[in-house]
Specification:
The chain has 2 domains: about 50 residues, Roll (SH3 type barrels); about 70 residues, Gyrase A, domain 2 (2-Layer Sandwich), CATH 3.30.1360. The strands form 2 sheets. Strands 4-3-2-1-5 form a 5-stranded antiparallel sheet, with helices on one face. The chain has a 4-stranded antiparallel sheet with strand order 6-7-9-8, covered by helices on one side. It is globular and about 45 Å long. The chain is built from 3 helices and 9 strands. About 20% of the residues lie in helices and about 35% in strands.
Length: about 150
């Protein structure tokens, strides 16, 4: 799909936004996928669906928005920290590699780097910000391996 300046729409028909905490509804379809009642946060949206991250290792899935419920908080502290980093950077999607997160964003707030440093502390080995295409920035966070 072609992207043009000003046409990007980072929400969907059900109102879900990147960074929002959600829980998978109890349904036969979600249960068969092992997702019923699991919590995560939205990492990318399309008009009728959302990508939801349920683990800090990059475990996530695309799902119809009607299969999700908004939740106030995440029970997993590590996943909540990742969500806060994602939100601080104004993330619209995320990619994972071994000890590396790449958060894509349209703009980075002025205080974002300090916020990310305070959230990750000594785990943050490096932070780089670079243009990614015409309308996005890629914030690359390299983490120190945990013992």
């Amino acid at each position: 799909m072609a992207r043009f300046p000003g046409t990007e729409n980072q929400h969907n028909r059900d109102g879900f936004l990147p960074g929002q905490v959600v829980r998978f509804r109890r349904s036969r379809a979600n249960g068969s996928r092992g997702l019923a009642d699991r919590c995560g946060f939205v990492t990318e949206v399309r008009p009728g669906s959302a990508q939801v991250l349920v683990g800090v290792d990059g475990e996530g899935t695309w799902i119809e928005s009607g299969s999700l419920l908004a939740e106030p908080t995440l029970p997993d502290a590590e996943l909540e920290r990742l969500r806060q980093v994602f939100s601080a950077l104004g993330g619209i999607r995320i990619e994972f590699d071994l000890h590396e997160w790449t958060v894509y964003t349209e703009a980075v707030p002025a205080d974002a780097v300090d916020r990310v440093r305070s959230l990750l502390g000594q785990r943050l080995a490096s932070f780089t910000l670079a243009a990614h295409g015409v309308h996005e920035l890629a914030a690359r966070l390299v983490l120190s391996p945990s013992d």
